[in-house]
Amino acid sequence: MDHAGLMADWQSGNADAGGSLIKEIHRELEAIAAAKLSQERNSSLSTGDLINEAVIRLSKLNRIKFQDRAHILALSARIMRQILIDEARRRNADKHYHTKVTLQTNIAEWQMPIELLALDMHLSELRDIDPQRADIVEMRFFGGMSMTDISTVLDVSVATVKRRWNASRIWLQDRMAN
């Protein structure tokens, strides 16, 4: 059975399908989680913790029809991003903890450190302007996804993803520098 079929069965209450799906994509989830955690300082989460929390949240989604593996991984990356943001907000709410949470990225075109909560704020602003561009940034930063995988998820050409990524990256760099 394909990934979308396993996800649909899992959403229908078949726990075995969920177990099979997670087993098949676990290596990719592990890579996404490890990349996200290696890019962030001061996180108390382990790779396993981040994957487990993402799987729990993924299991609760029953209104989304998944198309394929790339779609499931893109949503998993978004969920992991939200988990890290939630953790950063919790830490910032603690008046005894005053360090910024930064995200270090391996994206060659991005040379500056990224303060996670500022990025989240700017991504929300970008989402209001153009939701697809915000999705591209999210998949690149938090999912470590290739342009090809992003084009599959968004059902647009790789060239379109590259153009929108470049424009969004420049816009974000300008916002983050100010």
Question: What would you note in describing this structure?
Answer:
By secondary structure, the chain is an all-alpha fold. It is 71% helix and 2% strand. It has helices at 3-11, 15-38, 47-59, 69-93, 116-129, 131-143, 147-154, 158-177, and strands at residues 102-103, 114-115. A two-stranded antiparallel ribbon has the order 1-2. Residues 101-106 have low confidence and may be disordered.
How far apart the termini lie comes to 49 Å
Q: What is the string of SSEs from the N terminus onward?
A: HHHHEEHHHH
Describe the main β-sheet briefly: 2 strands, antiparallel
Kindly report the average pLDDT value. Answer: 79
Classify the secondary structure makeup into a structural class.
mainly alpha
Helical proportion, percent range = over 70%
| DSSP summary: helix tally | 8
Query: Uncertain runs with pLDDT below 50, 5 residues or more?
Result: 101-106
- How much of the sequence lies in strands comes to under 5%
Which radius of gyration do the C-alpha atoms yield? 16 Å
Beta-strand segment tally: 2
Strand arrangement, largest sheet? 1-2
The shape, in one word, is globular
What brief labels describe this structure?
8 helices, 178 residues, single chain, two-stranded antiparallel ribbon, mainly alpha
Write the layout of secondary structure elements.
Layout (H helix, E strand, L loop, with lengths): L2 H9 L3 H24 L8 H13 L9 H25 L8 E2 L10 E2 H14 L1 H13 L3 H8 L3 H20 L1
Antiparallel strand pairs: 1-2
Helix pairs in contact: 1-2, 2-3, 2-4, 3-4, 4-6, 5-6, 5-8, 6-8, 7-8
